[in-house]
């Protein structure tokens, strides 16, 4: 190696140390973005897909009239948006003088946000591309005082821009999967600079906290807040379906293909355990005529909630009314949660767990993966791979009373351990606003 080569290497190292790492990242990412965007757009069009939200992500949206008091929440997709629901509503209640902005990263997340927060949020849009221009345009238009990002999305340009502008930036409900952790750990030298830009990093568990600390999160800024999704309360409404003396199985929020699974399984169990009853709740009530055909074919007698039918006269009740499923979990022995044997991604098991009732779900649970991870560490929740496993686990809950009671106790323990996250975030906001 010549003296000139050594000098050139030293000069490069000096330049790198002088240039802001985020400036360098921003420069490179912008160039790559500009080059790749046309090709990405063409590929999406050829695949008959559309770039939902691309204009908003680029910063092309009308400047909202929000004033100078703005709290912004970001949930990338469906699961995160749902997790923020109670917190956003509580924020509006505690800080009425502040405008609420909600952003998402996906089309499905945007749809859920607009459905759930139409009466709560003052502005709903997409999170910007992590490109210097897009982030600056977004922040100039929205002007948040504080930004709270659900779970763990580390955007270098966005975090750096918030720090430079004096915007408080929080990671809340933070979690990190093992696969993501293994990748991030390899680039710890970079992500530690990103994490230092945050005001606070609040995680779901000590495991998640230790992972973030391992990739460079400042120890003095990182702590456990537990899981926001557990901050729900059981309904005080009394439900009377003539369930006394019976063990009611709820099949909640079922989709096409799942009724075909649960009805034969119930018939088999009912013949063996005559005290079992089934409350069948389709996610879409327009599917009830199809479910009736399945019940007729199975030879099961059934009634309708809308007609006031009860388990005293029927083995199956069809819940054909709206908005009642949540409170119905209070009367069940255990529940099967639908949307999990297709590509839906599952539905919220905590509606049953809050009543200390065990849940069973199929393998497709990506919308509630963090919750099912916690529940399945005990007997509070069970993820089954196929209908055979579903039948076997239902048999276990019906035949082994000691096992069943422990599963109920596990539900209660998990809820007690996880609640309180909402108050922690609200108290953080009280300190800085």
CATH overall fold name of the largest domain: Rossmann fold
The level 1 CATH classification of the largest domain is: Alpha Beta
Uncertain segments: none
Oligomeric state of shown chains? single chain
Give the tally of β-strands: 14
Helix content: 40-55%
Q: How is the biggest beta sheet arranged? A: 7 strands, parallel
Question: How far is the N terminus from the C terminus?
Answer: 58 Å
Second-tier CATH architecture of the largest domain: 3-Layer(aba) Sandwich
Query: Please, what is the average pLDDT?
Result: 90
Task: Please state the overall shape, judged from the principal axes of the Cα atoms.
Answer: elongated
Descriptive account of the structure:
By secondary structure, this protein is α/β, with parallel strands linked by helices. It folds into two domains: 52-225, 3-Layer(aba) Sandwich (Rossmann fold), CATH 3.40.50; 247-418, Glycogen Phosphorylase B (Rossmann fold, 3-Layer(aba) Sandwich). The chain is 47% helix and 15% strand. The protein has helices spanning 3-18, 21-46, 54-58, 78-83, 85-94, 107-116, 132-142, 156-165, 178-186, 188-195, 206-214, 259-272, 288-298, 325-328, 350-353, 369-375, 387-399, 401-418, 421-432; strands at residues 70-74, 99-104, 123-126, 146-150, 168-174, 200-203, 222-224, 247-254, 276-282, 302-304, 316-318, 334-337, 359-361, 381-383. It has a seven-stranded parallel sheet with strand order 3-2-1-4-5-6-7, sandwiched between helices. Strand 4 (146-150), helix 8 and strand 5 form a beta-alpha-beta unit. The longest helix is centred in the first third of the chain and has 26 residues, at 21-46. The protein is elongated. The protein starts with a helix and ends with a helix.
């Amino acid at each position: 190696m010549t003296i000139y080569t050594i000098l050139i290497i030293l000069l490069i190292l000096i330049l790198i140390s002088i240039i802001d790492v985020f400036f360098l990242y921003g420069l490179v990412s912008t160039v790559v973005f500009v080059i790749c965007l046309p090709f990405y757009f063409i590929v999406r069009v050829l695949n008959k897909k559309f770039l939902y939200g691309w204009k908003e992500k680029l910063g092309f949206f009308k400047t909202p009239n929000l004033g100078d008091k703005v709290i912004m929440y970001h949930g990338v997709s469906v699961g995160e948006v749902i997790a923020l629901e109670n917190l956003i509503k509580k924020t509006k209640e505690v800080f009425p003088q502040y405008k609420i902005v909600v952003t998402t990263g996906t089309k499905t997340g945007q749809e859920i946000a607009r459905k759930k927060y139409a009466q709560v949020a003052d502005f709903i849009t997409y999170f910007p591309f992590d490109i210097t221009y897009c982030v600056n345009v977004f922040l100039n238009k929205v002007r948040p005082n504080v930004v709270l990002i659900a779970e763990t999305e580390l955007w270098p340009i966005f975090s750096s821009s918030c720090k430079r502008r004096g915007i408080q930036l929080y990671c809340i409900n933070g979690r990190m999967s093992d696969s993501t952790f293994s990748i991030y750990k390899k680039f710890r030298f970079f992500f530690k600079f990103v994490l230092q830009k945050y005001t606070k990093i609040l995680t779901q568990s000590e495991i998640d906290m230790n992972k973030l600390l391992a990739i460079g999160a400042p120890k003095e800024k990182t702590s456990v807040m537990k899981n926001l999704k557990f901050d729900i309360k059981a309904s005080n409404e009394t439900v009377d379906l003539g369930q006394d003396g019976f063990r009611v199985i709820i099949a909640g929020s079922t989709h096409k293909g799942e009724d075909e699974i649960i009805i034969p399984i119930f018939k088999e169990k009912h013949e063996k355990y005559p005290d079992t009853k089934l409350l069948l709740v389709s996610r879409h009530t327009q599917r009830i005529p199809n479910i009736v055909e399945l019940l007729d074919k199975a030879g099961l007698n059934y009634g309708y909630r809308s007609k006031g039918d009860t388990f005293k006269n029927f083995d199956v009740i069809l819940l054909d009314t709206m908005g009642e499923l949540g409170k119905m979990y209070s009367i069940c022995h255990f529940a099967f949660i639908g949307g999990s044997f297709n590509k839906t991604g599952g539905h919220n098991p905590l509606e049953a767990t809050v009543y200390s009732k065990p849940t069973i779900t199929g393998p497709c649970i990506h919308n509630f993966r963090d919750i099912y991870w916690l529940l399945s560490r005990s007997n509070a929740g069970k993820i089954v791979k196929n209908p055979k496993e579903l039948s076997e686990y239902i048999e276990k809950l019906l035949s082994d009373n000691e096992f069943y009671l422990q599963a109920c106790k596990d539900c209660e323990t998990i809820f007690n351990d996880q609640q309180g996250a909402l108050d922690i975030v609200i108290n953080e906001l009280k300190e800085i606003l």
